# Entry
Amino acid sequence: MAVEGTLDLFKLPEILQLISQQKKTGILTVQGQQDIVAISFLNGRIVAADALSQTLEEGLAQVLVKEGMISASDLHRAAAEHQSAGGRLIDLLVERRYLERSQLLQALRFQTWKLLEQLLRWNEGDFKFYSGDEVSFEEGFNPISVEELLINAMPAPAAPPAQVSSVQAPRPVPAPPPSPPVPRAAAPSPVARPTAVPDPRSVSRPSPAVPAPAAAKPPAPAVAPVGEETGQYRQMRIEPRPATPRGLPWGGRALALLLALLVAGSVWRVPDSVMIPFSWQRRERTALARDQRAALYLKIDRAAKTWFLLKGSFPDRLEELVQASLLSPADLTDPEGYPLRYTANEESYTLQPMDGGKPVPGTEATEAITGNFLLDPEVLTVAPESQAAPLVLLD
Amino acid sequence: MAIIARVAAFAMIALGTLIIPAAAGAASVSSSQVTGVEMTAHVRQTLKQLEEQWLQWLVQKTPEQAAKARNDLMETARQLEMTRLPDLSAGALARGVEAARQKDFARARWSLDAAERFDPNRPETAFAKADVAWLQRNLPGAAGAWLQGCSRLFSHRLERFLWLQNLVFWVLVLLLVSGGLFVAVQMLARGNALFGDLEALFARRLPRPAALALAALALLWPLALPSGPLWLALYWSLLLWGYGSASERAVLIVLWLLLGASPLVIDLERRYVAVELSPPALAMQSLQDHRLYGSLFSDLGVLRSVLPSSIAVKHLLADLHRSLNQWELARVLYRQVLEKEPDNTSALINLGAYAFLKGDFNGAIQSFQKAAAVDPRSAAAQYDLSQAYSGSYMFDEQKAALAKAQEIDVATVNLWMANQSQRVVPVSGGLARIPEIRRELQATWHGGEDRNGGSTLLRRGLSLFLALSLILVAVTLHLARRPFGYADRTGDVVHEGAFDRWARVFLPGLASAEIGEGGRSFLAILFVTGLLMLPLFGRIGVHIPWRYDPGNYASWTLAITGLALYLGSRLRRELRDAV
# Structure
């Protein structure tokens, strides 16, 4: 369930308070002119935040270096290892003992706090809240309550929070309330792997086009109709949220590519077969092809007889009609994709679609100059007994 | 004509059954064993003259001589009440292009002028002019002529009709292909989740490699069926139903219904197209447009064989004979019309005209009086009556009838009076019945299929039934899976990074699919697919029987330009918005 609106109608503190009071779980995305920020809520408390302009790891690295928790050279070394090892940089920092996990979590909290501080200064933009049952965040993250944030981080007249202590364990200021760390996921689904920690970047960093929500779950029951009838603040549809994939990471892509190729191949080979595709519609396909063939033969006939009008005979090959621009190259193929065999004699010609060297039954057509007064001398033979003068309306 | 088998069969039937009664009352007319329509010697001589004048035109060396031969041709055609000669126009056009390729641009020019005069306002002539201008390196001239050709595309009924029918076919194919690609994009966005769920299902009892293989098999087995790609797309759309948003599900429902209904739409469209392309319909259209083509009389013979008892056809043929000055043949047919339709005003007037021309003024007066009684608002009946009275020296009655005619339509009557060469005015009621004849043709059309209505209906209805079943199965499957750990999850489409960014830019519909915007995703796919399918426009549906083929360059140009603009704008927006 999603709720959306604009910041000129509802200020961010109001929105945050609303989510907090109702103890909502989900993702709030705020799109301003320069950036998009996604905030993850678990039971009304902030457990992650990320911005499009700066990935979580980039921001975190800056904080770590700035606060002296890691040297720039160590960070570069870790980044290089990360390039080859893959995975998440922050996991690698802890695994390689560049810093303690507690330090990492505190830096992360500080990074999140800074981002929220900046966000609270925004006066323009659009917001959208995606409600759900679970969100992804860093395990052990100390949640930030909205009240704490609003009291300490409002841009003015409230004083800015103190800087992180750079002595031992840097902490964002103000100090977090003594709330216990929340579990990784609020309500893991029966098929969720308990060890899988969702990647905060992939979770909370929305795509440039439209902000993407975080982890997916079955559509939750509708959110209470908050301000349903009020201005631009309205309820939207149920939407799924992305989650860490399982199975083969390239499975979906490979399957999608396969289907796209099959569709493109079908439409390129015989485009009309797409309209009547089922196996039991063979008669309909045959009937359509017959009518299409009749139209094609009519076009060829007009071209061949125009040739006859100029040359006094039918062309030796259909390609001659293409060269004379009386036909297009596509006209040399039957509507079912078979090439046309053309044979001509003095007064007639025959068209026959060929399937691998064999004639397609029931598709042959022979056309002659018979009945065409411009080509057939028989039509204009005047019988000697019928020389009577016609009646005319003219005086 | 090219609908060879049918024409031959129909012509034979026509010759065997219909010409004989029609010709019975026309002693001075020899029935044609070739065309299916009787022609007097005079008409044949006129047609022969046309053929000879065409040959004269072909061998002319100077524009002046060619213009004279061309004017003679048109004058001869007018004797048969014809103003257009499409076959000769096509011949002149081909001759002009051939001359241009031999660098004889003067001849090309007057050949194309002749083509324009033989059959004015044809798109083919304009496209040929464009090609000749291109050969002359006259780019503005080529562009102008090409645009003129485009503007003429819709000025002729048959071509406009076929073009619009092809558009319907093309749109249908486009929607269905876009539907297939929509499922592919859904698979791209949610395929990992689907694959993962299937793997997890099988992994409960099997090792992971086996579970993976089974999951792949469970996804790909429809390829083994006949029409495998279609079933694959349908099957995946079913599986992805549970992972989609409301709008994506709505798109899938519409696509299923469209797929189910398309055979019915095709059948309906096919019926109209087949009738319009049939020799009788082509002949009727030509008569209406005063176009004389080589097989016109053969095709009219087919019309009579297809609808042997149609009064409207008899009326039309009577008008044809009258316009060819074959009055004896026309009279026989008008009488047959009046046997069935005693109050047919135009038949009465034309029979009166026949009597008048034979000098039977009393007979003419009786016919005109009856026509005037049936239709008191017919100015032609009153005017012709006044002429018949005049022939009988009944001048008081003549004045009264003329006054009535002028009261009804003074402008037209004055025009008739000004035309000193024509004493009585015939009425072309048969031509006005062409729409009625088209309806009769459609009623008799059965597309060469058997008349087993039950099985046909079942076959066509089966598709629609399948579409409804898909909806039911999708809902059932979705509900059935939920208790067993069903998880609605969007897959991680492509990992963050440069490729992710460009994939969203260059894969239409992907960004919308990620956030469940089904309608927007489908429209994005539809737009790009439409551009890609533009060059296929000539291959979908029926071949429009143009007499000159301008090639497919325009659609390729449009497609490439459109794609470049579309992707360029997306790229520009992406780079501009990049932070």
Summary: Chain A touches chain B through 118 residues (CB under 8 Å). The first strand of chain A starts at residue 2 and ends at 6. The radius of gyration of chain A is 38 Å. The mean pLDDT of chain A is 72.
